[in-house]
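S1.2 Input.
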Amino acid sequence: MYRITRALSVGRFATPERAADLLVAGVTHVLNVSHAPSQVTSGDAAFRGVAWFPLEDFRRIDEAEIMPILDALHVMASEPGAHVYVHCVAGHLRSPTVIWLYLVACGLDPAAARDVIEERSPDAAPGARRLVGPGMILHVQRHGLANYFPHPRREEVLVPFGPT
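S1.3 Output.
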């Protein structure tokens, strides 16, 4: 698991074996953007929320497809004390891209948001061209401005976690 901000982390597929480590790290919510259904659930493992939005690894994310994902991430990250773990299979492409798009939707400069993620998750490739097409940044910025401002947890969600 790589901590991006106080409220957002990224990493590999959340298996039941990894659930204990996630809970020890303070994870409260899990957002799965892999092609496989979640193996952890809310309730029994003490996660307050678990959601699954399947994304393909080798196809551009559609603008209509990303909005429900970002909205779900926003709801999770906006809860007081929330720490959201966003994962795909390896934590290199889809999940860092979702976090990157969310940070951009929340007002961060796209290049600065990419730097924050790459500094904290060395193998991450947020915003890869094979996933994000032209116009996506403007689309998520408009959506974020209309729906995520003012952010109830701005410092915890947008400020990079710890030293690089």
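S1.4 Remarks. The longest strand covers residues 8-11.
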